[in-house]
Design brief:
about 160 residues; alpha+beta; Trna Endonuclease, Chain: A, domain 1; three-stranded antiparallel β-sheet
Length: about 160
C-alpha cells in the first residue's frame, strides 16, 4: 500500500495517538485514572513519550510496523538507558484498519533501568557517503525482534509498563 510510505509521518503520528488512547482506556478500565502522558520538545535522547502511572515514569521509544512486515531489526538510542525505566515499544498494526497489536517490548520491570545496549551491534546510516561508505551511528544500537517480549493485547503491555494498578 503506497500510502504507508508516502504518508509515513502522518501514519506514525496516528499510531502514536492510537497507542496513547489505548493506554488511557486501559487505565480507565482498571479504575486507576492515573496515567499521564507527555511529549519531549526535542528529540535528542531517543524517546518519543513520557508516561507515568502507579508511581512509575517511563521514557518510551516508539516503533511501528504493520502486521506481516518482514522487518526484524530496530535501531535503539543508547541515551534511553540514562532515563529511569527507559523502554522500547514496537506497535504492530493492521495496514488496512490500523487496529493495534500485538506489541513488542524491550526494557525491564517498572522502576528498573533499560538493560545494557553495549553488547549490541552499532547501527549504520542507511545511505552511503560519496565513497559509498555507510558510516556508523555511535548513539544507536541494532536489536533483533527476538530480544523483545511479545504482548498480544494492550492490557499486557500496560501491566509491563506500570505494574498492577
Amino acid at each position: 500500500m503506497e500510502e504507508h510510505s508516502i504518508h509515513s509521518s502522518y501514519r506514525e503520528k496516528l499510531i502514536e495517538h492510537l497507542l496513547i488512547a489505548e493506554l488511557l482506556k486501559c487505565s480507565w478500565q482498571l479504575k486507576d485514572y492515573s496515567l499521564e502522558v507527555s511529549k519531549p520538545e526535542v528529540d535528542r535522547s531517543g524517546y518519543d513519550l513520557i508516561a507515568e502511572a502507579n508511581g512509575y515514569i517511563r521514557h518510551i521509544q516508539l516503533k511501528a510496523s504493520f502486521t506481516g512486515s518482514v522487518t526484524s531489526q530496530q535501531k535503539i538510542h543508547v541515551s534511553l538507558a540514562k532515563k529511569p525505566s527507559g523502554c522500547v515499544v514496537l506497535v504492530y498494526f493492521d495496514k488496512d484498519t490500523l487496529e493495534l497489536g500485538p506489541f513488542l517490548y524491550y526494557g525491564a520491570a517498572p522502576g528498573q533501568p533499560l538493560p545494557s545496549l553495549e553488547s549490541f551491534k552499532v547501527a549504520r546510516h542507511t545511505k552511503g557517503n560519496a565513497e559509498g561508505v555507510k558510516a556508523e551511528r555511535p548513539n544507536l544500537r541494532v536489536l533483533n525482534k527476538r530480544h523483545f517480549t511479545r504482548f498480544e493485547d494492550i492490557q499486557g503491555l500496560y501491566s509491563q509498563l506500570f505494574g498492577a494498578a
